[in-house]
Specification:
alpha/beta, Rossmann fold, formyl-coa transferase, domain 3, 2 domains, 7-stranded mixed sheet, 3-stranded antiparallel sheet, 18 helices, about 40% helix
């Protein structure tokens, strides 16, 4: 996406995740922050990694959009942009003079990408968060045990919403090649959640029976579980076809199960699950984790160790395949964070820039926009713009 300019008015996760996808693909993404800087930078607890993860490969400028000169600067930047990304409440950008209707009239080629809680409809003016969407979109119900809805352990809906926003922006860019005009792209948290749980809605439509929460589900396969090992570790193992069942029984010496003709078909094995699982668990509990995983890999069966996020820094595959990027955060902290999970013609997408300091590129971007050093100094002196981390 080299040659594509993106102006990003966003914070937290959804908008920045859309921006980082385009930035990783080579677009020039300029992040517009308020004079005091994006507050996401200072989050702690579960939010401490938001800025570091979703803002690499971008440039940062700090502008007071509520001032006449600051608004004029931002509009000058937008005039040269292909895509605008924003994730504020409906109406917020309009109040600042940066709504779609006004900007598209002046810049008909602009692709205006709004990251929302909801698409158009009765809920569109509600405030939404990842958690809100997971709760009302059915994902929290499916994740937790019965009666105990539980949000997923990562900001999966914020990120999914950002991915759909980036996808929509790319589609609009392609359509602009044909029509010469941009358009308003909207992505949302709620509808993204509904799309992700669509398989469970389809299950109800097909079977007439509601999907049970994942901890209480009826699995489609008899062996599809996390098993304990002799060294008190846990490994997931899945056997998802009749041919895999034969391999599984032969490689692990389950002669009795293999000889049982009533277990040769998948659905029959599911019905006999309560008989099969204790036999498998007893065998696996006699093996340590490394031994079990070595045997599973040799057999070609689906398996996985139960990893924690911090374990992934040392993952053999990620480290051998450019799956982690070496970054330096604005405070000097070194971090190795996940690369874009794509290959194009065997090429992975890497680091072009570290996550920017707040306002780090203010002077650089304003010079590119045609402002003189004297004008920039005047803006800075009056608090219209600011540069440097802080």
């Amino acid at each position: 996406m080299s040659g594509i300019r993106v102006i990003e008015f966003s914070h937290m996760v959804m908008g920045p995740s859309a921006g980082v996808l385009l930035a990783d693909l080579g677009a020039d993404v300029v992040k517009v922050e308020p004079i005091g800087g994006d507050k996401t930078r200072k989050l702690r607890g579960s939010g401490a990694g938001y800025f570091a993860m979703y803002n690499r490969n971008k440039r940062s400028i700090r502008v007071d959009l509520k001032s006449a000169d600051g608004a004029a600067i931002a509009k000058k930047l937008v005039a040269d942009a292909d895509i605008l990304i924003e994730n504020f409440r409906p109406g917020a950008m309009d109040k600042l003079g940066f709504g779609y209707e006004s900007l598209s009239q002046a810049h008909p080629r602009l692709i205006y990408c709004s990251n929302r809680g909801f698409l158009n409809g009765p809920y569109e003016h509600r405030t939404a968060l990842d958690e809100v969407a997971q709760m009302m979109g059915g994902l929290a119900y499916m994740t937790g045990p019965p009666g105990r809805p539980l949000r997923a352990g990562a900001s999966v809906i914020d990120v999914a919403g950002g991915m759909f926003a980036a996808l929509g922006a790319l589609a609009a860019l392609e359509q602009r090649h044909k029509t010469g005009r941009g358009q308003h792209v909207k992505s949302s948290l709620f509808e993204s959640t509904v799309f992700l749980v669509g398989q469970h809605m389809a299950q109800y439509a097909v079977t007439g029976s509601p999907a049970a929460p994942m901890p209480a589900r009826i699995s489609a396969w008899a062996v599809y579980d996390v098993f304990e090992t002799a060294d008190d570790e846990r490994v997931f193992v899945g056997v998802v076809s009749d041919s895999q069942w034969l391999t599984f029984c032969e490689d692990f010496g389950f002669d009795e199960l293999l000889a049982d003709a009533s277990l040769r078909a998948n659905n029959d094995r599911v019905a006999a699950r309560e008989r099969i699982i204790p036999v498998v668990q007893e065998r696996f509990r006699s093996m340590n984790k490394a031994e079990l995983m070595t045997k599973l890999e040799a057999s070609g069966l689906p398996f996985a160790p139960i990893a924690r996020p911090e374990d992934l820094f040392d993952d053999e595959h990620l480290n051998a395949s450019d799956g982690l990027l070496d970054l330096e955060l604005p405070d000097g902290t070194k971090a190795r964070l996940p690369a874009l999970p794509l290959e194009l013609d065997g090429m992975r997408f890497g680091k072009l820039r570290n996550p920017p300091g707040s306002g780090e590129h203010t002077i650089e971007v304003l010079r590119e926009a045609g402002y003189s050093d004297a004008e920039i100094a005047d803006f800075a002196g009056r608090g219209v713009v600011s540069s440097g981390d802080g």
